[in-house]
Structures are given as structure tokens and as C-alpha cells.
Amino acid sequence: MTILVIAEHTNDHLSDATAKTVSAATKIGGDIHVLVAGSGASAAAEQAAKISGVAKVLHAEDDHYAKQLAEPMAALILSLADDYDVLMAPAGTDGKNYMPRVAAKLDVMQVSDIIAVESADTFQRPIYAGNAIATVQSSDAKKVITVRGTAFDAPAMDGSASVETIGAAEFPSISEFVKEELTKSDRPELQGAKIVISGGRALASGENFEKYIYPVADKLGAAVGASRAAVDAGYVPNDMQVGQTGKVVAPELYIAVGISGAIQHLAGMKDSKVIVAINKDEEAPIFQVADYGLVADLFEAMPELEKAL
Amino acid sequence: MKVLVPVKRVIDYNVKVRVKPDQSDVDLANVKMSMNPFDEIAVEEAVRLKEAGTAEEVIAVTIGPEKAQDQLRQALAMGADRAILIETTETVEPLSVAKLLAKVCEEESPQLVVMGKQAIDDDCNQTGQMLAALMGWPQGTFASAVTKEGDKLHVTREIDGGLQTVALNLPAVVTTDLRLNEPRYASLPNIMKAKKKPLDKKSPSDYGVEITARLKTLKVTEPPKREAGIKVGSVADLVEKLKNEAGVL
Ligand SMILES: Cc1cc2nc3c(=O)[nH]c(=O)nc-3n(C[C@H](O)[C@H](O)[C@H](O)COP(=O)(O)OP(=O)(O)OC[C@H]3O[C@@H](n4cnc5c(N)ncnc54)[C@H](O)[C@@H]3O)c2cc1C
Ligand SMILES: Cc1cc2nc3c(=O)[nH]c(=O)nc-3n(C[C@H](O)[C@H](O)[C@H](O)COP(=O)(O)OP(=O)(O)OC[C@H]3O[C@@H](n4cnc5c(N)ncnc54)[C@H](O)[C@@H]3O)c2cc1C
């Protein structure tokens, strides 16, 4: 069995989810290679070589790969696919974008967002916003899989795989990068953070996130998330949304502030180790999953919490 | 240009599903079914393109049981011009859905396909990308803004780090994210009018597509249950518990 893990990275930095995808690959078993395709991505390739369990890193350099656009990425992965039995990627917005494209071309039904490996062809994946877990068996000879990073442990970073430079594949010139607006933040990344504090509609403005959420987050070294309602209202950017259709997190501690606890939100955080809810409505559904519930007005409780820490 | 909008009949997003005792599947008997919320956004976007004069015709298509006509009628009531039902009672995986949609694309030659980024039942998030691959078209997934700039389509995408804008050649596939627009409610007169709009019925065999499943569901189980914990009386109490009981501070 030979497995290719497609790295998720920002050229200078490899995502934690990539390492965790390697963990999932280890559970399937076999020779594990990691593909790092980017522009100026040597740093990411070197980080990939350190992941324990990786036998070889393939490094493809070209401007076309700088922004991970689906069309060139899929073409590159397809050019390598013959040599592999399994193709895997983290289920982030990059992997979700190019992997189904690869799968369709290979005439393979992708297994999305797996949370457990039962055997080389059998996997668990959440369906219906995590309200049910399906165990599925794939009959495809080649497997295309995306992996939910939070469900797998981070491997040790003591490996020393070789890094092999490979050429670029042909470029389908049907799409091009125009621009990006990346959210800049000095706080930890949502998906890797040990503590996440999220605000909901009750915050009522972006300024209130600044005033009531960020100071507590900074004291705790926490990442900040939000409910869809807070994102839709424009209080915070889209990449902070936690939930079924946003990011899935599973930190040691999740603090939900002024969030009601809709099933779509719970889908993104209910695997957190400890959940705290601060909500002024004692009937709010979030309390049904919270280990510690505080019935209080957040505008009073949050400044108090900041002081108490 | 012609716009194709695939819509899927799914369990209503307000319903909390239960797993059947025999673990064969979730229990969908007598639960409320609706149009996948992301597909409502897709229909809305297509209808807006028509209202802006960018699109001439909007065609809604679904693959599903006879009852999926309800969702097509809803699309028609929102402003789609005609609809196609590819009727099957079987479970159709995204790959087969994409193959059927590719056949519809060959027949109808749309310049644009707008569809949901994920269906809220299976949460697969694949169909649009697979369709784009089969057609050799570019894709603009997780779209929060779509504009026509000359002969290209500019799509702003919601990505893990923020927003990314790409320029796509046409024809193209766009998949919708939540913030692309707010779908309209169909008015009563439009619901009445929709009943008279054309709705074609087909079957997968009309398109020569085999829909055998590649994934076998061995079982469907409940996720581990989280028990509700305790209520704390004050902020001080909370901090004390997090430090000494939970050990997370
Ligand atoms: C297709 C689809 C996908 C979705 N995906 C997601 C997703 O990924 N993530 C997500 O989060 N949602 C998602 N949603 C939306 C979800 O259904 C809810 O609408 C949303 O989570 C509600 O956000 P909220 O809890 O902030 O707001 P509300 O439900 O309005 O809750 C606000 C809460 O704040 C409390 N409150 C008010 N004032 C105060 C105060 N002063 N102090 C303390 N508490 C206060 C209230 O008691 C209430 O419980 C999705 C919905 C759909 C249809
Ligand atoms: C255990 C289990 C039980 C299931 N039971 C049912 C069931 O009872 N009824 C049922 O309908 N499905 C059922 N399915 C789903 C079915 O097998 C396919 O997986 C599904 O139709 C493909 O959509 P998706 O959610 O996986 O794709 P996604 O890639 O998440 O869907 C994205 C978009 O593709 C389009 N799309 C997807 N499917 C269709 C379609 N059929 N017609 C038109 N456009 C579409 C929509 O625009 C949608 O927003 C079940 C799946 C499993 C695993």
C-alpha cells in the first residue's frame, strides 16, 4: 500500500491538519509520501519531512501552485495518482476544493471528512451535522479521502524523510488568482488552539468583540471563534465561523458566550473536552452540552472573568 | 446565458435526526423535508442574474424521488423558468449525481451551474467539484460573491484564512456559501404560477448513467452523548472549577 498525503500549507508554514492526516494514513498503513505543491514552499516541505511516519516528501514548485487553485492542483495530483493506492488530504477549504475534482477524474467516490479508520477500506464519517456517524466501506480500488484533523492525534515531529523535487504538471488555463484578503491575527489558529472562546449574536457588534471577547482570549492565550449569526451580521470575518458549515474545533476548553447552541453550531464544537456556556437564558440549548453553565449577562460576566484570570 | 441550478431534497435543517434502532440508517420517516439551504441560495443567485439581465434562462434540476418535485416547484416559484426531475428512489452518491448533471450539461449547454457547497444531510461537499472535473470546467467553490467581469466570472471564496477571489473562464461551476445572498420567500401568486411552469420527468437510464453505489454503509450510529454538566453560581465559581476540577486553566 502506498499513500500520498497532499499537504495543506501557506508556503512558509505547514498546517497541523497535515500532520494529523499523516496520523490517519498511518492507521491505514503502508508507505506514506507527502506532496507539497507551492511557490517558495521549501519551508513547508522541510516541515513535512519531520512528520513521523513519512517516508518521502515530493516538492513541486511553481507560481501556479502558490494559491492552491483547484484546477492546477488537481492536474498535478492526477499526474502522480498512478503510483498510489490512497490519496488523502485534510478536509480544509483547500482539500475540499481539489480532492473531489481528483476523485471524479479517477472515477472514484471520495470518502469525505473521516473521523476514524477501521481498516484499509472502512471509515467512519459524521453525517447530518454530526447527529449520526456512518461507517462506510469503499469498493473503489483507489481511495480518495479527506480527513477531519481534530479527530486524529498529532504525530511526533522527529522524522527525517528525504525531500525530492518534482516537476510541475500541465496547467489547465481556465482559472486564475485575482486577490485575497486574509484575516491577520496574532492569536492562535482556531483549529489548533487549546482554548477557544466564541461569541454569538448577543455580542451585537464588532466593537463588543473587541471589548468583551478579545481581552479574555488574550489572557487565556485562546483563539476566537463565532457563531454564524455573528459572522452574518458582520461582527467578525467568515473564517471565524465554528459549526457544520464553518470550522470544526475540538480544544481542551471551549467557551461559548451569548450563543444559543443551534445544532449547526454544536456540530462544530461538541467534541471539545470541556465546554463552558455563558448565556442569560437558562433554557438555552447550549446548556445541554455544557460542562459548566453560567446564567448571566455577558456584558457583566466577561469583564469579571477578565479580572478573575 | 443559461444557468443550471441543481437542488436537493433533504431533511429540514431544523429537524434533529435520530438513528434507527437497527443502525441501518437515520430515521427519515415522517420528518419534514425541504430544499437544501445552500441550494436556496443557489436558486436566488441564479434568479438575480436573470433579473440583472446577465442570464436569460434558469433551469432547476434534481435527482431524487417523485416527492422531490416539491423542491423543484419551490425553485420555480422563486423564479426559475423550468425544471427537470431525474426520478429515482435509490440512494445516489455525489459521483453519480455529478455524472447525471454532466449529461444534463451536455444536453442543455449552460454557461454557468450554481449549486450548494454541501448538502446538509450527507455533508459531502463534493458534487460541484466533481461536475466541474467531469466537464473540464473551472470551479468557484464556497462563493460569497459572484460578478461577471467581461467574459470572465469573478468568484470570491470563503477559505480557511479569509477570502480569495478567482477569475474563471465560462462555462463554470459555482458552489454557494451562506453569505452569498439571502434567499427570497416565494409569494403566493408566484407559487400558483410555478404550478404551470414546465417540469420534465426523466430517469437515470435516459442518460445512460449507472448509479451503483461505491460506498456501502455498514452501519449508522449515534455519536457519543454529552451529558449536561452543572450550573455555576458566579464567575469566581466558574474559574475555581476550571482550575481545580477540570484542570484546563
Ligand atoms: C444551512 C445552515 C448552516 C448553518 N451553519 C452554521 C454554522 O456552521 N455555525 C453556526 O454557528 N451556525 C450555523 N447556522 C445557524 C444556526 O442555525 C443558528 O442560527 C446560529 O448558530 C445562531 O447563532 P447565535 O447562537 O449566535 O444566535 P442566537 O440563536 O440568536 O442566540 C443568541 C443567544 O445569546 C443569548 N443572549 C442574548 N443576550 C445576552 C447577554 N446579554 N448575555 C448573555 N447571553 C445573551 C440569548 O439568550 C441566545 O441564547 C446554520 C444554519 C443553516 C440553515
Ligand atoms: C446513510 C445514508 C442515507 C441516505 N439517505 C438518503 C435519502 O434517504 N434520501 C436522499 O435523497 N439521499 C440520501 N442519501 C444521500 C445520497 O446517498 C447522496 O450522497 C446524495 O444525494 C449526494 O449529495 P451529498 O449531500 O452527498 O453531496 P454534496 O456534494 O454535499 O451536495 C452539494 C450540492 O450538490 C447538489 N446535489 C447533490 N445531490 C443532488 C441531487 N440528488 N439532485 C440535484 N442536486 C444535487 C446540490 O446543489 C447540493 O447542494 C443518503 C446517504 C447516506 C450515506
From TrEMBL, chain A:
Cofactor annotation remark: Binds 1 FAD per dimer.
Binding positions for FAD per the UniProt entry: 201, 227-228, 241-245, 258-265, 279
Keywords from the named record: Electron transport, FAD, Flavoprotein, Transport
Essential cofactor(s): FAD
Sample GO molecular function, one term: electron transfer activity
Electron transfer flavoprotein alpha/beta-subunit N-terminal domain boundaries: 3-181
Pfam families (UniProt xref): ETF (PF01012), ETF_alpha (PF00766)
PROSITE patterns linked to this entry: ETF_ALPHA (PS00696)
Entry keyword Flavoprotein: yes
UniProt-listed GO biological process terms: fatty acid beta-oxidation using acyl-CoA dehydrogenase
PANTHER family: ELECTRON TRANSFER FLAVOPROTEIN ALPHA, ELECTRON TRANSFER FLAVOPROTEIN SUBUNIT ALPHA, MITOCHONDRIAL
Family: Belongs to the ETF alpha-subunit/FixB family.
Quaternary state and interactors: Heterodimer of an alpha and a beta subunit.
Function summary: The electron transfer flavoprotein serves as a specific electron acceptor for other dehydrogenases. It transfers the electrons to the main respiratory chain via ETF-ubiquinone oxidoreductase (ETF dehydrogenase).
Protein name: Electron transfer flavoprotein subunit alpha
Organism: Aquisalinus luteolus
Lineage: Bacteria, Pseudomonadati, Pseudomonadota, Alphaproteobacteria, Parvularculales
Automatic annotation (TrEMBL), chain B:
Obligatory cofactor(s): AMP
Keyword Repressor attributed: no
Residue ranges constituting the Electron transfer flavoprotein alpha/beta-subunit N-terminal domain according to the UniProt record: 23-211
GO molecular function terms listed in the Swiss-Prot or TrEMBL record: electron transfer activity
Domain of life, source organism: Bacteria
Keywords noted in UniProt: Electron transport, Transport
GO annotation, biological process: carboxylic acid catabolic process
CDD domains: ETF_beta
Pfam families xref list: ETF (PF01012)
Family to which this protein belongs: Belongs to the ETF beta-subunit/FixA family.
Subunit structure: Heterodimer of an alpha and a beta subunit.
Function comment: The electron transfer flavoprotein serves as a specific electron acceptor for other dehydrogenases. It transfers the electrons to the main respiratory chain via ETF-ubiquinone oxidoreductase (ETF dehydrogenase).
Protein name, as recorded: Electron transfer flavoprotein subunit beta
Organism in which the protein naturally occurs: Aquisalinus luteolus
Gene name in the database record: etfB
